[in-house]
Amino acid sequence: MPKVQMPQLGESVAEGTIGKWLKQPGDHVAKYEPIVEVITDKVNAEVPSPFEGTLTEILVQEGETVPNNTDIAVIEAVGEGAAATGDGASDRGAAEPEAPAAVQTAEATADELSPQAGTGHGPAGSDERPEGPQEAQPQAARQQSPPPQAAEQQSAPVAVASAPGAGSNGKSGPDGYEGRMTPAVRRLAREHGIDLSLIAGTGHGGRVTRDDVMKFIESGGAEAAPQQSPPAQAAEQQPAQQIPETQQQPAARQPGPGPLPAGESPVAAGDSLKQASPMRRAIATQMSRALQVPVAYTVVEVDMSGVVALREKSKRDYQAREGISLTYDAIVAKATVEALRRHPDFNAHYTEEGHWRRQAVNLGIAVAVDDGLVVPVVKDADSLSIHGLNKQIRDLADRARGGRLKMDDIQGGTFTLDNTGWTGSLITAPIINTPEVGILTMESIVKRPVVVETPAGDTIGIKPMMYMCLGFDHRATDGAQAGRFVADVKRWLESVDTSTTIW
């Protein structure tokens, strides 16, 4: 059956989180009809179905994060069901009778516990179990009843696979449990000293989810969990003669803090624990990745007298004519794209193959949303006037805050502009939106005393001044080039006056 995969929602996005399933198993879906909402550090996007048919299985549950191209759902395409019950089914029945139920169960369990079985968090196709030797065995061998001892050996893994919360006999991993779950769930269980085999998973294939662990903790189940770490339990299970007494005593006296007692939370009384939202977790992942880039910074101070005068003169007429306010963002964006045309090294991506200079100037605009940040993109920004940029920025910001951005809105950015000044900040060291090679901040416009050159000599004047900070990837460019680029932005802004064209 065709499978729906996690799409790549942005050039620098490596994974996505399932926010909400819009369709459930058994629902009919039309081609291109949205079936799931996916959350990344940049956008909440609805993913359309690439097929028409019936949603038969959901492979990744809400709240789970998986890499791009991971299978997330199975759809029975139109006409596929008839084919499955027609000639294909009869041919299979004639060539190979169905194996007994006991043999099928054992084979399915062996696949599930095989190291090659997918976890739902790997590359595309990782959940498809490889064809094992069972498929190549003769029919008689597959139907032959196993000896009593072999039957007992087969029954044990079946019990573990079908009932993950039935006990601890299935322990065999770094966390003492062989079930399928994300590293975050394993870490949460370790922090609370929880035996994962005591929790019945509600995720796909019996997978234990974060919600399962949190409910187990809230219900007081953590108090019943073993207060020993898995390595200590493994040591106890070994025969006493294999561990000399001289080695046991020092281990018992080793100082240092151990794991928290079961059921004890690291959150102190009166504190509160704010769970990270899917967007927050995605931002954390992207920012951690971006910090691997060697970033350098350069700061300039810009006299914004002409920009302020232009906006003050035009804002009332502009508001009446366009129905929206004229922002400083649009004027600074215009200066930025003009400089990018003269300095193509900054309108670029840095890749393993080299410095990829882009022809289109697609300006990313950082937009603050509830508990997060997104960077929608103004496409072909160098072809727009101040008014055109203002209109595009306003539209993207409104849709970002309303959760109505489309996938195309956050793809293809070549450089990012971030207005941190609205918070009152004076200087910000921004993090590059990799794989872009540069990001520019505009800070608060503050009236300050400055030296003013006049024909009669230098005097002190009060002017609206603004700092701008350029963060750049030092692998792609150097301080001299960065200085020339930001100097061009400064020069353009200081050349603005009340005669500058807005439309």
Task: Please describe what this structure looks like.
The protein has 503 residues and is of the alpha+beta class. It folds into 3 domains: 3-140, Beta Barrel (OB fold (Dihydrolipoamide Acetyltransferase, E2P)); 163-246, Dihydrolipoamide Transferase, CATH 4.10.320; 293-494, Chloramphenicol acetyltransferase-like domain (Chloramphenicol Acetyltransferase). The chain has helices at 80-85, 87-95, 101-113, 139-143, 148-162, 183-191, 210-218, 230-237, 245-253, 278-290, 305-322, 328-342, 386-401, 479-494; strands at residues 3-5, 15-21, 28-29, 34-39, 44-48, 53-58, 65-67, 71-77, 295-303, 348-351, 354-357, 363-365, 367-369, 372-374, 377-378, 415-419, 438-454, 457-473. The protein has a 6-stranded mixed β-sheet with strand order 9-18-17-16-12-15. It has a 4-stranded antiparallel β-sheet with strand order 1-8-6-3, with no helix packed on it. α3 packs across α5, α12 (328-342) packs across α13 and α12 (328-342) packs across α14. The protein is elongated and about 85 Å long. Residues 82-178 and 224-256 have low confidence and may be disordered.
